[in-house]
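Entry 12.
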Amino acid sequence: MILYEMISAGTILPNTVGLLSTFSLQGVGIATAVVGATGLFIGLFLGFAAKKFEVEVDEKEAEVRGLLPGNNCGGCGFPGCDGLAKAIANGEAPVNACPVANQAVYNQIAAVMGTEAAETEKTVAFVKCAGTCDKTEVKYEYYGVQDCKKAALAPGKGNKKCSYGCMGFGSCVKVCAFDAIHIVNGIAVVDKEKCSGCTKCTAECPNNLIDMVPFGARTKVACSSKDKGKDVKAACQAGCIACKMCVKACEYDAIHVEDNIAYIDYSKCTNCGKCAAVCPVKVIQLEQA
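Predicted 3D structure (tokens):
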């Protein structure tokens, strides 16, 4: 505005205005050149730095990572699939360390590593409790946080008379990334077809109720109580009373009673079902083939 008034008043001559315009264009040109040169310098510097500090990637590690399922569940004990791939490539983990993968994947990883993968059977989670709402006795009403670890701090480890059983607040459900475990009638139940074997639920259960069992295992003891028979009966209708009838019925020495609870040796069990047939409290479950 001031420049316009000065021109109008004749204070600044027209050729002076042209000179000012030339200076303005020169200023823009210089600024553009400076910005361009700065950008070029930064680009060259970043390119040099990237080359200088480039981290070489192990080809085997990259191939193994490409074969892993990518769930990043941590069930292998390493920080995600990247961590496991690096461990396998470095010989720090076996080729079948991923609990989510199958035998075909193990064989492919073994081929990359120039070795062979041992034949392994998938393991799945199993909740050792049959104390549903209609079978277990309740001591009091629980109105606290709906979390098993929090409830375990309450007197008697929750409101059920059996302090060994499933509290049914679903902490295991919350950590399962595969929708494989749900609370049904007061206890956690695993869908073995969906279970990946990542073991996250086993680590979450404060009562250590969840075991990993072979996928093909059809005979399972759904109880964890170590109380004597009389006390078990007072707390739950579906508890092991340590009668040892299952032990006598087994022809393969596959089931034994320890600490008042029956345990199955799956390396010996044939799933014949005789132990389940004689169990008086039906705590031994036989899954149909």
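Annotation: DSSP finds eleven helices and eight strands in the chain. The two ends are 94 Å apart (CA to CA).
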